[in-house]
Design goal:
0% strand; coiled coil; mainly alpha
């Protein structure tokens, strides 16, 4: 689980850096008069990337929970004695 937490932190850091760069690119595109379509395409690509990031982060969170939180069957595993 420790390795998974490290990877999650690295993943979040990379996304934050990419998001910063994306915002800088968007600002530059807005400064160009004829770049409306490029801006719209860039925004769509950025939105798709954010969706993928959220999906991947959710998967990592699920994996972390699976390794930390016991499942329902693990919580309720009782040993019953058979009565004669």
């Amino acid at each position: 689980m420790n390795q998974l937490s490290i990877l999650k932190t690295q993943f979040m850091d990379k996304f934050q850096k990419l998001d910063t760069y994306q915002n800088q690119i968007s600002e530059q595109l807005l400064d160009i008069e004829d770049a409306v379509q490029e801006y719209l395409d860039d925004m769509e690509d950025a939105e798709n990337y954010r969706d993928r990031y959220i999906e991947m982060r959710t998967r990592v969170d699920w994996k972390v929970r699976e390794t930390v939180v016991p499942t329902e069957t693990e919580k309720r595993s009782f040993n019953y004695r058979k009565s004669n």
